[in-house]
C-alpha cells in the first residue's frame, strides 16, 4: 500500500460556461454537464445531461473536453455528486473533473474511493455564501493505493453489485413506462374524482421529544420521499412506546407528500415504517392503476398546492382531482397488478444490493 496525493496520480480539470446570451453557443452536439444533471442520477456512467454546446461555444470559454473515463466530481452546490464520462464531454465550473493516470490508479477505484470521502471533501471546502472545493485542496488530498491487481479485484467485486443495481433500475423504468402506457390506453370519458375511487390515510403527529437513536421504528416524513421515490436515508427513529400501529406501513404501500415538494410518490419497501403527518397513504382496488395515476398526474397534483414560502396540498382539493375512469374500469385494471408486484420486487432487489454495496465499500475503503 502506497500513499499518494491526488495530484500525483491524476489531473484535475476545471469547467466553464459559454455566454448564455449567445444562441450560437448552444444546442450543439457537445454534452455539457452541470451539477443539476446529477441531482437524481444514480448510475456510474453518464452520456449527457440536459444541455449541449456548439464548437463555437466550446472555443469561447475555458471549459475542457474530457476523455472517456473521466470522473466528474461536483465541487459546489452541492459538493460530492459523482459520475464517470461514458463519452467525450465537458462541464460547467461546478465540477473538478479527475483524469486518472492508469499507471497508478484504476478510475473506478478512484470513483468508489471518492464516494466514501464526500463528508471529508465537504469539510475541507470553504466559502462565505456557499462552500466550494478548491482545485488545490482536492489535489492535496491523500489516498492509499493497493496494487493495480488488487484495485481491479475490488472494482470487479463492487462493480458486480452495481451491475445488478443498474440492471434492475432499467427493468423498473421499462415496466413503469409500460404501466403508464396501459393507463393512457385505458382512460375513458367516464370521469370520477380522486376521493371517490381512492382511499386516503393521514399520518400521525409525533413530537420530536419522542425521537430516539436506538430504535428500529422508522418515522416516514416528507424528506423520505424524493424524486426517486421512497427511501429511509437520514430517517428519524421513534421510541417503542410512541410507535402507534395505527400508522404502521406495510411493504407495498403507496405514499404521497403533502407539504414542500408536494406530489412525490413512492412504494414502501421496508418494514417497521410509521406514517408521519403531511405524508399520505393511498390505497386502491388496483395498486398498479394508483401508482401509474400518481406518476402521470404529478404535475396536476403539484398545481393544487397553495402557499408562498412552502407549498401545501389540501386533502379536500386532492379529493376533487379528476380521474378518467369508472370505478369498475379501475377494478378491472387489477389484472395488471402483477406489473406493480414486479416494480416492488425490483425495488427490493435494488435495496438489498445497495446494502451489500455499502458493506463492501466499508470493507475496502
UniProtKB/TrEMBL annotation:
Q: Which GO terms describe its biological process?
A: DNA restriction-modification system
What name is this protein filed under? Type I restriction modification DNA specificity domain-containing protein
Q: Does the keyword DNA-binding apply?
A: yes
Print the keywords alphabetically.
DNA-binding, Restriction system
Outline the extent of the Type I restriction modification DNA specificity domain. Answer: 3-170, 197-323
Q: Which InterPro entries match?
A: Restrct_endonuc_typeI_TRD (IPR000055), Restrct_endonuc_typeI_TRD_sf (IPR044946), Type-I_RS_S_subunit (IPR052021)
Could you tell me which CDD domains the record lists for this protein? RMtype1_S_EcoJA69PI-TRD1-CR1_like (cd17273)
- Give the Pfam families listed for this entry: Methylase_S
Q: Name one GO molecular function term.
A: DNA binding
Record bears the keyword DNA-binding: yes
Q: Which species does the entry assign this protein to? A: Mycoplasmopsis arginini (Mycoplasma arginini)
> Per the similarity annotation, which family is this?
Belongs to the type-I restriction system S methylase family.
Amino acid at each position: 500500500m502506497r500513499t499518494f496525493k491526488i495530484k500525483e496520480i491524476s489531473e484535475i480539470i476545471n469547467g466553464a460556461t459559454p455566454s448564455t446570451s449567445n444562441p450560437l453557443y448552444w444546442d450543439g452536439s457537445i454534452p455539457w454537464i452541470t451539477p443539476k444533471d446529477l441531482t437524481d442520477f444514480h448510475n456510474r456512467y453518464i452520456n449527457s445531461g440536459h444541455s449541449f454546446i456548439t464548437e463555437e461555444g466550446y472555443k469561447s470559454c475555458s471549459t475542457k473536453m474530457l476523455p472517456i473515463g473521466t470522473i466528474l466530481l461536483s465541487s459546489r452546490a452541492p459538493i460530492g455528486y459523482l459520475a464517470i464520462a461514458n463519452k467525450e464531454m465537458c462541464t460547467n465550473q461546478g465540477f473538478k473533473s479527475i483524469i486518472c493516470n492508469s499507471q497508478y490508479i484504476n478510475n473506478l477505484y478512484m470513483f468508489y474511493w471518492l464516494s466514501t470521502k464526500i463528508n471529508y471533501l465537504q469539510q475541507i471546502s470553504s466559502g462565505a455564501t456557499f462552500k466550494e472545493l478548491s482545485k488545490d485542496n482536492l489535489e492535496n488530498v491523500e489516498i492509499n493505493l493497493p496494487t493495480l491487481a488488487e484495485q481491479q479485484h475490488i472494482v470487479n467485486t463492487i462493480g458486480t453489485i452495481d451491475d445488478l443495481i443498474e440492471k434492475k433500475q432499467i427493468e423498473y423504468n421499462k415496466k413503469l413506462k409500460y404501466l403508464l402506457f396501459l393507463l393512457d390506453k385505458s382512460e375513458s370519458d367516464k370521469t370520477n374524482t380522486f376521493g371517490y375511487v381512492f382511499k386516503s390515510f393521514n399520518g400521525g403527529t409525533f413530537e420530536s421529544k419522542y425521537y430516539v437513536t436506538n430504535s428500529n421504528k422508522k418515522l416516514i416524513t416528507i424528506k423520505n420521499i424524493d424524486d426517486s421515490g421512497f427511501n429511509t436515508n437520514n430517517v428519524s427513529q421513534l421510541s417503542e412506546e410512541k410507535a402507534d400501529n395505527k400508522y404502521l406501513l406495510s411493504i407495498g404501500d403507496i405514499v404521497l407528500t403533502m407539504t414542500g415538494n408536494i406530489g412525490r410518490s413512492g412504494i414502501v419497501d421496508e418494514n417497521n415504517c410509521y406514517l408521519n403527518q403531511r405524508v399520505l397513504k393511498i390505497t386502491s382496488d388496483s395498486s398498479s392503476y394508483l401508482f401509474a395515476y400518481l406518476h402521470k398526474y404529478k404535475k396536476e397534483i403539484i398545481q393544487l398546492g397553495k402557499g408562498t414560502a412552502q407549498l401545501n396540498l389540501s386533502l379536500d382539493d386532492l379529493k376533487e382531482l379528476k380521474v378518467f375512469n369508472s370505478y369498475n374500469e379501475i377494478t378491472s385494471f387489477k389484472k395488471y397488478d402483477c406489473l406493480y408486484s414486479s416494480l416492488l420486487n425490483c425495488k427490493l432487489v435494488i435495496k438489498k444490493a445497495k446494502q451489500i454495496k455499502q458493506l463492501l465499500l466499508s470493507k475496502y475503503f
